[in-house]
Amino acid sequence: MPSLTSLAPAGPTAAPSRTTATARRLMAICGTLLAALLCALSVGASSASAHAALTSTDPADGSVVKTAPREVTLNFSEGVLLSGDSVRVLDPKGKRVDTGKTAHVGGKSSTAAAGLHSGLPDGTYTVAWKAVSEDSHPVSGAFTFSIGAPSKTTAKVPTGETSDSTVSTLYGIGRYAAYGGFAALVGGSVFAGLCRSSRPVRKIAVGGWVTAFTASLLLLLLRGPYTDGEGIGGILDLGRLGDVLSTKPGAALLSRLLLLGAAAVFLAVLFGSYTRRTGEREADARRRQDLAFGLGFGGTVMAVGLSATWAMAEHASVGLQRQLAMPVDMIHLIAVGVWLGGLASLAVTLRAGEPIGRAAVRRFSRLAFGSVVALVVTGLYQSWRQVGSWGALTDTEYGRWLLVKVGLVAVLLGIAAISRRWTGRLTDATADTAEETDAEAEAESASEAAPAASEAEATAEAEAEAGTKAAAKAAVKAAQPVRTGAADAAVGTPADAETESGDGPSDGPGDGAGSDAADDDPERAAQLARQRAAKDKTATLRERDADRERSALRRSVIAETIVAVVLLAVATVLSGTQPGRAETEQASASATKPGGQLNVDPVSVLVPYNTGPKSGRGKAVVMIEPALPGDNALHVFTTDLADRPVDVPEVKLSLTLKSKGIGPLRIPLERLSTGHWSAKTVQLPMAGTWQLSLTVRTSDIDQVTETRNVKVAQ
Predict the structure, then answer these.
(1) Which residues pair with 690 in a beta bridge?
(2) Are strands 138-147 and 64-65 parallel, antiparallel or unpaired?
């Protein structure tokens, strides 16, 4: 059967060279674009690690409290995963004063609390914290508070670097490789099953599997050092694997490795039993039909399962509408794999000069169009969910990277439109059945040549010992590679023209001695075989470049593939960047945080009292939080002169705003513990300087009332 590409009209002799030069220029431009964007990605990725943001603390950052708190509490913008030392509290000398146990408050995953030892002296304390956000990214930070009065501190505050630079770089490379391997595996498998299976496509699919498996294993080993901020040596500590596997990201990586193990069996069947041809058309058709349903079902389960290992551990699993966002994210990932992996498969098929019919190319074109539709729909939903507003597109890092991604998608769609135009111009006069028959004939001839060669070589060895050279010459000829008619037609000679014309080894009397010497020398025979293989390859490339439509399609598909590689890099950075919606909400929360403008910390008022007797002397601390108009919390702490909590029979408190004629507002107090009274809801109608009146009764007849001024900010 003639080659499919031979049906297209060959251009002028200079056309292949012009095509090659154009392809090289295109590759150079696309390569420069790839290098520039990858450099930008490596710079931008370092600042894209904050996801769960610290929204508030108790005690507040920089605040001064009169008495030592029993614990330190942190509140985050989303849920976090904690370890035993996620929160460390250091005294002014740098010594730890926390109990070493960190836990969530009231079961809320967005909180963290660490208990403190009792009897802490006055001074400035440093709180260093680290955690892992629900979307698998580590976060850390530090803040200070003071007891009694600020003091000098020798405690070292973390610089903000969450992970070791080497570990962080390797982890980022591993994430990108895992995404790329998944796309190659899914796209190559779909292309082989529905469009065209060949050796280059098999390399794409198997290479994707190897890349995804290796990258996932690397990520699992690096997960511990990555979240704990340790160096590369931490991967040797296999004991921490148990802790990693108990987390959501660790379980997702383990599940991915198990699914990839099952995918290896899928690939063996797809590129083995399913694509193997025996020469019996009916038997091959029945076998392929029997395997088609199982491969389709198994491949779908594999793709869905693998995509779920990302969707359940990253952005889609956090935030609003997560029950809808995770399936949408899975569809998005699978569509990316079918489109980009299929592009790579089509590119290598065209570049290798493999015969591929117009029907197969158009079949992939329809698959790619469906994938693009799915990408657009799911991408719009994800953009709305992660960005939230038009302003966030330019004001947040996530929004800016999203604009870069949209621009690359637009470029990719433009090149795809060119590819579809060339697809419509393909001249393919043969039907798909003719293509299959041609492939079967080539496979059958190759399978017949292999045993003939081995048999001839065995005969040659036996007769060589007996001194018969004729058998040895026949063995060498039989061992020479079988060339197809299409390749011979491209170079303008029949399959054995070399032998008949005298250019190669010949039995003619003129050079019988040289022929005998070549046949007797195994190295010479191998050299001749390599020369014929090189000629076959050259013939294949000439044949490929002679088809103008397929050459143009090949160039546009290669350009698509290069842009797709850059697009995948941008998508990887996006998955590691704090969503614009979360960043905007965090900024809004900071702007509207109580006390965020004039009064960051709660107002504390020290009121010494003396009711007369020796036991009637002490101190009271009144705290109003946040000391702003509206709802406030009020606490009263009573101590003796040695700052030990003491109970008194009665405490009364009232607030008066004399400039506005408001009050006195009597505040009902509830005793919570020894020396601690509280009012959870205190309504202050407006800002101003309020007069605080505190009455302390220490016996049935001994009491005193003290007044102080308290400023309530606007």
Answers:
(1) 710
(2) parallel
pLDDT attached to residue 408: 87
Which H or E run includes 648?
none
Collect all residues with Cβ–Cβ distance below 8 Å to 374 and sequence separation of at least 6: 331, 332, 335
The answer to whether 641 and 676 have CB atoms below 8 angstroms apart is no
Cβ-based burial of 483 (10 A; exposed 0-12, middle 13-18, buried ≥19): buried
**CA atoms of 712 and 678, how far apart (whole Å):** 18
What's the rounded Cα separation, in Å, for the pair 480 and 476?
6
Please list the alpha-helical segments (H only) found in 388-431: 391-395, 397-424
668 contacts 582 by C-beta, under 8 angstroms? no
The residue whose two tokens read 């702003």 is 628
Helix (H), strand (E) at residue 379: helix 358-387
Q: Structure pTM?
A: 0.58
Whole-number pLDDT of residue 304: 94
Integer Cα distance of 67 and 144 in angstroms: 15
Burial class (CB in 10 A: 0-12, 13-18, 19+), 541: middle
Among 501, 500, 503, 505, which residue's Cα sits nearest to residue 479? 505
CA atoms of 3 and 487, how far apart (whole Å)? 8
- Residues sharing a CB contact under 8 Å with residue 537, sequence separation 6 or more, in sequence order: none
CB 243 within 8 A of CB 86: no
Measured between alpha carbons, how far is 625 from 182 in angstroms, rounded to an integer? 52
Ranges of residues in the chain with a pLDDT under 70 are 1-51, 135, 157-163, 276-279, 319, 425-520, 536-537, 539-547, 582-601, 714
How far apart are the C-alpha atoms of 654 and 643, rounded to whole Å?
Answer: 24
Instruction: For residue 507, give the nearest of 476, 482, 461, 528 by alpha carbon.
Output: 476
For residue 642, what are its two tokens? 């040695």
Listed residue (385, 263, 251) closest to 312, CA to CA:
251
Q: Which residues contact 513 (CB under 8 A, 6 or more apart)?
A: none
Distance CA 495, CA 2 (A): 14
Q: In a 3-state reduction of DSSP, which class is residue 57?
A: strand
Cα separation, 237 vs 213, whole angstroms: 21
pLDDT tens per residue across span 389-404:
788 788 888 888 888 8
Reading across the β-sheet that carries 54-58, which strands appear in turn?
A: 54-58, 71-76, 108-116, 98-105
- The 3-state DSSP composition of the chain as helix, strand, coil percent (nearest 5) reads 55, 20, 25
- Residue among 676, 696, 677 at smallest CA distance from 615: 696
Residue 555 CA to residue 548 CA, distance in Å, equals: 11
* Closest C-alpha to 241, from 260, 225, 258: 225
Rg over alpha carbons for the chain, rounded to the nearest Å, is 38
The DSSP secondary structure of 602-613, one letter per residue, reads: PEEEEEEEE-SS
The arrangement of strands across the sheet holding 688-697 comes to 662-667, 650-657, 688-697, 703-712
pLDDT tens for each residue of 155-203: 776 544 456 778 888 988 998 899 999 999 999 999 988 888 888 899 9
How is residue 90 written in tokens?
Answer: 């250091």
Instruction: Return phi, psi of residue 695, to 5°.
Output: -110, 125
**Non-local CB neighbours of 592 within 8 Å, separated by 6+ positions:** none
Q: Which residue has the tokens 């060669």?
A: 453
Residues in the chain: 714
Do residues 614 and 442 lie in contact, with contact meaning Cβ atoms separated by under 8 Å? no
Round to whole Å and give the CA distance between 5 and 402. Answer: 41
d(CA 70, CA 77): 24
Query: Tokens 């965020």 identify what position?
Result: 596
The DSSP element (H or E) to which 264 belongs, if any, is helix 248-270
Q: Using CA atoms, how far apart are residues 149 and 175, in angstroms rounded to an integer?
A: 47
